[in-house]
Amino acid sequence: MEMVKLTIDGVKVEVPQGSTVLEAARAANIDIPTLCYLKGINEVGACRMCLVEVKGARTLQASCVLPVTDGMEVMTTTPAVREARRVNLELILSNHDRKCLTCVRNQNCELQDLADRLGVHDIRFEGEMSKKTIDSLSPSIVRDPNKCILCRRCISVCRNIQGIGVIGATERGFETSVEPVFNLSIGEVPCINCGQCIEACPVGALREKDDTEKVWDALYDEDLHVVVQTAPAVRVALGEEFGMPIGTNVKGKMVAALRRLGFDKVFDTDFAADLTIMEEGTELLNRLNNGGKLPLITSCSPGWIKYCEHNYPEFLDNLSTCKSPHEMMGAVLKTYYAEKEGIDPSKVFVVSIMPCTAKKFEAARPELSTSGYPDVDVVLTTRELGRMIKEAGIDFVNLADEEFDPTLGDSTGAGVIFGTTGGVMEAALRTVAELVTGEPMKDIEVTAVRGLDGVKETNITLGDMIIKAAVAHGTANAKALIEQVKSGEKEYHFIEVMGCPGGCITGGGQPIVDAKTKLDHDVWALRAQAIYEEDRNLPIRKSHENPSVKKVYDEYFGEPNSKKAHEILHTHYVERKKYV
Description:
The protein is α/β, with parallel strands linked by helices. The chain folds into three domains: 3-93, Ubiquitin-like (UB roll) (Roll), CATH 3.10.20.740; 95-123 and 130-208, 2-Layer Sandwich (Alpha-Beta Plaits), CATH 3.30.70.20; 213-569, Rossmann fold (3-Layer(aba) Sandwich). It has helices at 21-27, 79-94, 110-117, 153-161, 196-200, 212-219, 251-261, 269-290, 302-311, 325-341, 358-363, 382-391, 413-416, 423-437, 475-487, 515-520, 523-537, 547-557, 563-569; strands at 3-8, 11-16, 51-54, 61-62, 73-75, 141-143, 168-170, 177-179, 206-208, 225-230, 265-268, 296-297, 348-354, 378-381, 455-462, 465-473, 494-498. The protein is globular.
């Protein structure tokens, strides 16, 4: 690899040819400020905060898009650079809704941090400000154009990473706005509610719809029996809301905090993940053995389901009819659990703590109401739970660990790994292998479906049967895979799709990690490591060996895919128009 030598602030640096000045500076531990930059996603030089002075150049240059050249001399803190950055930042702030104290991103805002770093205490360019309507029609995402700084990070993520492109820049100059076409709400276009735009936004222009007040009201309603369940990805991210290292597994503290908040029961969505494997694994075998529609495609990700309903209605019959785990749990809570405890289903209030904003949309689907009432009443993101814990004054970091409530809080390692891309596939294969051969898999860690490759493939030999399997994460990767299946180029028996890149652990409802921290830490790898570590440390790692799952089948459902199981644990899908 050809190397290039240059000097930055008097420091000699050697980097691979093709590197940018920004990358070279960071290699030398010189921190050039950025705002619009997201490595590999949004490298457009729009905000001009990363300006530097290059010897011999007539103007200041945006370092994020400036290639290095041999012998280049770069200065990052000259008077001209410092003044240009400050002016640019003040101009951005001059048309920004600066209600920082009441903003959901207060103290976790890249614009706020930058103003502090550059010492901007006054703004010299006060004048006309844009006044635009807040878009809150979506059940998942709120868009506040008055806070938008036109960095275009959300546009790039939506278009280039997710392959959806429902938001873009409209108008020009002072009238420029980032929004859907035709002045439509984000709830009226084929948005899949994944929330990756929220994760990319450096400010508070995009946020999840806050449903915490609904939960507070329920907790203090004496007529309600309030039950909470938590997804596997939440436990490896919630700690970040309290300053703990990325990837810390805080399951025990999370359970303790939920009890302190006043929930009547604290259950684990991982139990329902094990239940999902029993239903989905049986469904797969039934389709393989009885000429059913193949490939079977997983249905755990509501963002992916909505994407498929909008864009690939011809594949709706390929989708597993299994409800997603938290919806399956909600259905169990309002049927089996309500009957067993002698509680009227109308009084069972189910709260799901999810890493996902799309789950809010999913919970509102009318078909997900087995008992006559919504399977899940409210979905909160990991971030919303963090805010509730803080508001309650709970010292989260110093809480003693507690365990989930029994039966519906019991799970296996297979349920845990649902939290990351490839996890559903791996969990299913652990069970299907034994159902087919009568013998356990020799190596239950299916490494071929792990990792961050956009599409992963593997062939699993189960006795006389070879299962051709594929995993895709992020809807752009899913689109590429489905197009290959559609054209006949690829043939599979089983496909796992997760709507978010990396799966649930990097979902749109997880703690927001700023752009610089993402450069310094592999967020997905750290959270995934915690997921896989919990799997390895659990005594039971296969869904069909979960004694509590066996108990629920013995007492209520009879067997996987029974008539009763289909009535309660399965669902259907609808073709959706592109625009409402």
